[in-house]
Please model this.
Amino acid sequence: MDIKIISIINEPFKDNGKIISKRSCKAKIDGELFGTLGYPTQKEMFDGLDNKQLYFPNCLIEDFSFVEYRKYKKKAIDYVIELTELDLSSCIILKDFLLDYVEVRGNISFQWLQIINTSFSIKRCKLIKTNPGNPGISFRGLKTINSRIRFQKVELDSTSLDFSSSEIIKSNFNFNELEFYHNNENKYIDCLCFYAMSLDKQSWIYIKDSILKNIEIDFRSYEWYGKITFIRDEIENSYLILCDQIIDGELKLLELSKNYTSLINSIPDISYGDKSNIFLILKQNFNKLGHYDDEDSAYVEFKRCQAKAKLEESKKKGLIKKIVGCLRYRGNRFLFDFVGGYGTKPKNVFRFMIIVVLGFTPLYAFIPNFLKWEEITKHFCNIEFFNKLLIGLYHSMITFLTIGYGDIQPESVYGSLLSGIEGFLGLFLMAYFTIAFSRKVLR
Model:
């Protein structure tokens, strides 16, 4: 994107009736007239800092530095500048902007800020927004092009850090050693918000070595084609919300993956349908990253939430559909979840196969008239009890494996029915085991 100042107007620039700067400018963005913006001088911005305010909304800023301000005031490089207001909403930043060693207690806004072909850094700062009506720190509508945005060693005492409806093009976000916390008791939900944000293929968001406590990390209605990475973050009582996404990039949950299941399942006021979508997104991204064990865990949780969503839906209908829905849910949980973890746990399927074979063995061996004992010629042991038990085990095995030698046959209808049931279970469980085992091996 190309920005060109076409004229400077030496007349006061006002915002909501308040004089912001003694001059303004007209600019063209990619050849199109953008309109009139405030164009403050470095001296005007320094005067604002003297009054503990950096209030320059709707301005074009290209000649400002906190480092130069400290030199101007003959202060140390780590001198902490205290502000009661920081408002750069709807500004265009054209040159490197570094906000460092600053403590803000008051109104803070970066809404609709545009950062173009430069860097924007907030380092070693403490941002405390005291507006009770809107206690969040907002970067809503942020637009960055070919830029780098960095937050390092920043303490945020706020209910939210909002990047919703932002557009990130060929840019990198780096959140490093942040502390997100909120000490005041109120009704607001703490949130690191990326709602309806767009991230292109050449951009990434990197959250590293940060502390997130009681934070809701919201990626709903997000379009990402770049990369998002969480690494070595301390996450406590926090939620990661991923719904209605368009995803073509990577979400790396390197440390978050240790407790993501409990985090998502503990989110209040969210339907099982939405939770299932969250787990499906995680499953897809774990697959891209090659974290197959985490992928399996996410897939199991996805299927569980999907089943619960169907159960909740059936409860809203008539009595018969409610009963059918409940029975279907119980059968699903036992047959698919408990037996084999929805095809992710071949060991569980194999154990259940052994249980079935051993469970049918005493039925064949000791229930009268189940087998045609007078026609059985096999003899495994001289002790009758153990001989019958071994014959029952033999019949159970060949029935389960559907081999069907024909040397041992059931005598009664009940014996035939029982053998048929075991044969069907064997057919089903062997297919289930083969699929689950092949899935593990082929990956």
